[in-house]
Amino acid sequence: MVYKDALSRRLQSREAVVGIFGLGYVGLPLMLRFSTAGIRVIGFDIDPAKVERLNAGQSYIKHISNSQIASAREAGFEATVDFSRTAELDCAILCVPTPLTRHREPDLSYIEATLASMLPYLKAGQLVSLESTTYPGTTEEVLLPRLVEKGFDVGHDFFLVYSPEREDPGNPNFETKTIPKICGGYSQDCLELGVALYELAVDRVVPVSSTKTAEMTKLLENIHRSVNIGLVNEMKMVADRMGIDIHEVIAAAATKPFGFTAYYPGPGLGGHCIPIDPFYLTWKAREYGLNTRFIELAGEVNSRMPEWVIAKLAEALNEHSKPLKGSRILVLGVAYKKNVDDIRESPSLKLIELLRQSGSEVSYSDPHVPKIPRTRSYSLTMTSLPITPENLTNQDAILLATDHDEFDYKMISENARLIVDTRGRYPFGASNVVKA
């Protein structure tokens, strides 16, 4: 109890130092929240350019302002690439990516590399929390053995929890402080300390019985969305063949005050969670001899949406006596959702790749993404084209992939020869608009 009591006192007195490993779309908002709550935070990242910008009081994420970073710096926040400073921490929170391999299997290399960098400097009395989305069992099967090998008696002289991130970039209705935080511990003492840690920064912490339960909770949240989006994407294709506006159908169905939740179709899934998380569970389920056919079917429907959109575009161009090959196509929006600068797993990147493969002359415009950086899957090296009447009239088709509010939709429709709308921003039946 000595180690638990000591850490509990430091948390209660707000003297505890919190380290956040991975300063991206999850780690940076979490850092700001702890800093605003009066907790000293050290941020760790392997990108020296990010660290330099943060220490200069500058943000590299659109919905996080420079003034927020500057305020955190004034409150004591500092960023570093020096993992030896792990020794200064009371609590370490891992917010690193968990992508899939090209065979759609879990890639835990970021977790493993981060833990390997921390291990030489971890000491008794510290707490480690994993926030990265992963399959049930990761905390106990990947982190726990390495901590035991280090010589810790986890649950007594070292503490381990899993608390999944729930960030929704660009959502004005929720922030880190107000989103309830799930927390599962390796032991009861681990759980109590994990709850005490997050209660410093979050309005409500929801304890669950184990790290596996917390890991499965995160997967259920995102699989729920994936399955329902897959359903409405399939409904969209059926409605299209029948000449029905799926968005009108959804709006009408949403008037039912019970038993229905509105989900909206699009050109495919994007972001760091929904396109990836279902496959973490399907992979783990095979270890238990189970086939998650329902989940995998939704994944198949969603993953084939970019091809369906390109087919609709080709069909629309044919109606204008234009082949897809050689046509000039302007893709509107490359972020995975509107009003953010996040392109992770964005279906727009797949659309651009498919258009290039078809021989189209492709350009894009996105007010939030002036240049497409290299990603794990794509190397597009493109810069955003300004939306002007001249640039619009020079295109054979405009492909609306991400419906940012900054776009002047009236001006676009007045100057575009053909618009292929994947987001339902234009009225059904408009003369120069094709729904996809």
As for the number of domains, it is 3
Mean pLDDT: 94
Helix percentage: 25-40%
Largest sheet: 8 strands, mixed
Number of helices: 15
Low-pLDDT residue intervals, each spanning 5 or more residues = none
Structural class, by secondary structure, is alpha/beta
Question: How would you describe the shape?
Answer: elongated
Write the layout of secondary structure elements.
Blueprint: H1 2-12, E1 17-21, H2 27-36, E2 40-44, H3 48-55, H4 66-74, E3 78-80, E4 91-94, H5 109-118, E5 127-130, H6 138-149, E6 159-162, E7 181-185, H7 188-199, E8 205-208, H8 211-242, H9 246-253, H10 277-287, H11 293-303, H12 305-319, E9 328-332, H13 347-357, E10 361-365, H14 389-393, E11 397-400, H15 409-415, E12 419-421, E13 433-435
Parallel strand pairs: 1-2, 1-4, 2-3, 4-5, 5-6, 7-8, 9-10, 9-11, 11-12, 12-13
Antiparallel strand pairs: 6-7
Helix pairs in contact: 1-7, 2-4, 8-10, 8-11, 12-13
Describe this structure in words.
The chain is an alpha/beta fold. Helix content is 39%, strand content 12%. The protein has an eight-stranded mixed sheet with strand order 3-2-1-4-5-6-7-8, with helices on both faces.
Which features characterize this protein?
alpha/beta, 8-stranded mixed beta sheet, 39% helix, Rossmann fold, 13 strands, N-(1-d-carboxylethyl)-l-norvaline Dehydrogenase, domain 2, 12% strand, 15 helices, 5-stranded parallel beta sheet, 436 residues
